[in-house]
UniProtKB/TrEMBL annotation:
Composition bias, Low complexity: 47-58
One Pfam family of this chain: CIS_tube
Stated name of the protein: Contractile injection system tube protein N-terminal domain-containing protein
Organism of this sequence: Streptomyces broussonetiae
InterPro entries hit by this protein: CIS_tube_prot_N
């Protein structure tokens, strides 16, 4: 105890983990400097009987069927600030941190040169560059495979060389499910593990009583 206060445990940071496609081991770990103040999550069910174009239901016998996992989207704002790390030399400001994030949504220069060479040799079908498997972590109960679908940077302060030293990064992530990934992809099992974690958390949730809803009896047909 120091100054009358008990030791406060160090908070867990959220972040992104890039997985090596061959070994399945972490290739790069991006720890967010500050945990975002909020995490917005939207979950859209994949209903078998729904007609998404008109909003009306289709076959009535399919109304309660789910054709796959829900489409889950996460939005967050990450803050990066070089002034919080004054004891670390930063001749490039926060360019390195921003570049790491930006490379998550862009092929490398080497892969682009390779595609150009294949096209120059007359290759009829050039396979698009595959992005590495990316995991987003928010504590040990939320580790999910994701795809970055939107990414915007607001640079807010600069040093004398115009290197950014403070920025806000708005990130939108789409959770990749078993509907998106082949069985052989390591993200397939990681999503199932994430779903199983949800099921375990839902298990001990308290069950309410019908009386709290102004209802009585085990059958609701006569309400």
């Amino acid at each position: 105890m120091v100054g009358g206060y008990a030791d406060i445990p160090k908070p867990i940071r959220s972040g992104l983990v890039i997985i090596d496609p061959q070994r399945g081991t972490p290739k790069q770990i991006i720890v967010l400097q500050f945990n975002p103040d909020s995490l917005q999550r939207s979950i859209a069910p994949q209903a078998s009987g729904a007609d998404n174009s008109s909003g009306s239901s289709g076959d009535r016998t399919e109304a309660l069927r789910l054709k796959g996992p829900a489409v889950e989207t996460w939005k967050l704002t990450a803050e990066i600030d070089a002034t919080d790390q004054l004891d670390v030399a930063a001749p490039n400001g926060i360019h390195p941190q921003l570049a790491v994030l930006e490379m998550l949504v862009s092929p490398s220069s080497a892969s682009l040169r390779q595609l150009e060479a294949l096209a120059a040799r007359g290759t009829l079908e050039v396979t698009p560059v595959e992005a590495p498997l990316t995991l987003f972590t928010w504590g040990n109960k939320r580790v999910v495979p994701v795809r970055l679908t939107e990414f915007s940077i607001t640079e807010e302060a600069f040093d004398v060389d115009l290197n950014p030293i403070r920025a806000q990064v708005d990130i939108t992530l789409r959770v990749l499910t078993v509907s998106d990934l082949p069985v052989t992809n390591r993200g397939y099992e990681l999503y199932l593990a994430y779903l199983a974690q949800k099921e375990r958390l839902a298990g001990p949730a308290a069950t309410g009583r019908l009386s709290a809803l102004g209802l009585s009896g085990s059958g609701l047909g006569g309400v």
